[in-house]
Amino acid sequence: MSELFADLTPERLRELLHQMLLIRAFEESAEQLYLQGLIHGTMHLSIGQEGSAVGACAALRPTDYILSTHRGHGHCIAKGARADQMMAEFFGKESGYCRGRGGSMHMADVETGNLGANGIVAGGVPMAAGVGLSIQMQRQDRVVLVFFGDGASNEGAFHESLNLAAIWNLPVLYFCENNQYAMSMSIARASKVDRISDRAAGYGMAGVTVDGNDLVAVYRETQAAAERARGGGGPTLIEARTYRWKGHSKSDKQRYRTKEEVKEWQDRDPIARLARRMIEAGLLSEAGLGDVQARVDAEMAAAIEFAKNSAEPDPATILEGVYA
Amino acid sequence: MSRELTYAEAIREAIDLAMARDERVFLFGEDVGVYGGAFGVTEGLYQKYGPERVRDTPISEAVIAGVATGAALTGMRPIAEIQFMDFITLSMEQLVLQAAKLRFMLGGKVAVPFVLRTPAGAGTGAAAQHSESLENWFVHVPGLKVVMPSTPADAKGLLLGAIEDPNPVIFVEHKLLYRVKGEVPEGYYTLPLSRSQVKRRGRDVTVVATSLMVQRALEAAAQLAAEGIEVEVVDPCTLKPLDSDPIVRSVVKTGRVLIVHEACKTGGFGGEVAALIAESEAFDFLDAPIRRLAGLDIPVPYNRELERRMVPQVDDIAAAARRLVREAC
């Protein structure tokens, strides 16, 4: 295989393309279902960031852990979760991954190593050091990858976690999805350094910035970091530069950015980019791409049906799960 | 078989026994290693178990709580130490928003079995930022357990019980109890959490007290016994989830109750105990109003005399109990 696709086989690439399309379909469905009043609460859509979620998780093994963020639907799918149980969780149903208790911001699939999304910015970052220590002390051949945004890199807990992981040489991949905005605050206004990955030097760990909309590039850097961590080389701070096409959440009027800026990033769509490269390399046909999309559409339709038809939690169980 | 140990020695012995018995148990926090802990509680454990299982951390209370949570979530049994309970303010997000809620938020699919030990309390002249008793903040958080032992034997058994417990446990030690001696059984034993203990039997008045205040209540009870007043002392041991039955039964018997704790009165644990008594069948048996004796609503002062006056002393407890007994019948 050419350098263009790292060590990813055509089969694997089609699988990853499928995952990215499934994430986008999931997010688009979620938005529609919300407008129809079938989902309540709020949601943080990751449309435009599929390349970083799928590229990062592609470099992990099923036994590796991830910790995710409030914008975490993509991470969940990329780590191997099923769209139907995710959608059921979104509907607040008993068949959902968290039995309807968590919803969008706490989506988790422990079976696939996803220890959960998080409603607190940088909430998963300190925990990641604990998971890393657990792996190290149990002599497991695992790594933990913690997703967080550019906003999280300004939380105090971020500093404590990176410093600890560095001094203890923990197998933690700190994966920053720099989507340019912490709600309305741009990273340019929130940080004096140009690259978030430059902060790695302050902890004595490796740091790298990568184009988050280039799945293969993300995969390559994450794989290198994972290999280093498995080999006892300690943590890495990876900054994947990307962009969220939608607002922060449901209430965002997007006064802080221009339509032109959004359009510019939409032209760098991570899905179209991989599909085009695969077609150009002869690894995918237009018809083949259509097949993948058709599969995704069917999967989403089934997921929504599953969620709609699932039972509500029994109110008699309301106290369950507070204590083990 | 038992022998006399201090409260600090009893805690050390519990950690030692748990680490010897279970590979998953490890101890970490600020200066717990070579230094032996700020109060000497963990002395010798570093030499016995080495730097991997007895870990010094940087001064990073948020990530200490995060490490406890993340490691517990993935198969370990961490014992974290927050050097002074005051510093737990810096760990709140991970404890309250993560550790406490993870199991519930994830539909009951995970558990977070860790113990976070922390010394609380005034009386050391360390002033307002090294003397706090913040236990009731955690009592207010579903998903956390809060344990406050008052004797060396309880400290050992409850700590081992807390380490075996599959939930996050905030284990509040009292600095002035560290040197207090008591009979402690040898070997491994656990005391169940959420079990209130009657520390002294009496028919005239119930004193519900926590931590150091249990010791002071027992001293006050001895004084009052000489005056012919029989005090029953109940120690909840675990504040959350609370075993309320022994408290209610005691008040049904005595008809009078004084609740004593060191933490500030307003919003303190005493209010919760008073409310549960008022809501229970014991209400009809009350011969006098429910009384609380607690820390003054002020930061802990540095001056020796002001500090002493901030916290209930033996004489204060005796006076309050005496007043209660002589009050309306």
Describe this structure in words.
The complex is a heterodimer of chains A (324) and B (329). Chain A is 43% helix and 10% strand. Chain A has 324 residues and is an alpha/beta fold. Chain A has one domain: Thiamin diphosphate (ThDP)-binding fold, Pyr/PP domains (Rossmann fold, 3-Layer(aba) Sandwich). Chain A has a five-stranded parallel beta sheet, with helices on both faces. Chain A has a two-stranded antiparallel sheet with strand order 4-5. Chain B is of the alpha/beta class and 329 residues long. Chain B folds into two domains: 2-185, Thiamin diphosphate (ThDP)-binding fold, Pyr/PP domains (Rossmann fold); 197-326, Rossmann fold (3-Layer(aba) Sandwich), CATH 3.40.50.920. Chain B has a seven-stranded mixed beta sheet with strand order 3-2-4-5-7-6-12, sandwiched between helices. A five-stranded mixed beta sheet of chain B has the order 9-11-10-13-14, sandwiched between helices. Chain B has a two-stranded antiparallel sheet with strand order 1-8. Chain B is globular, with a radius of gyration of 20 Å. Classes of the chains: A alpha/beta (324), B alpha/beta (329).
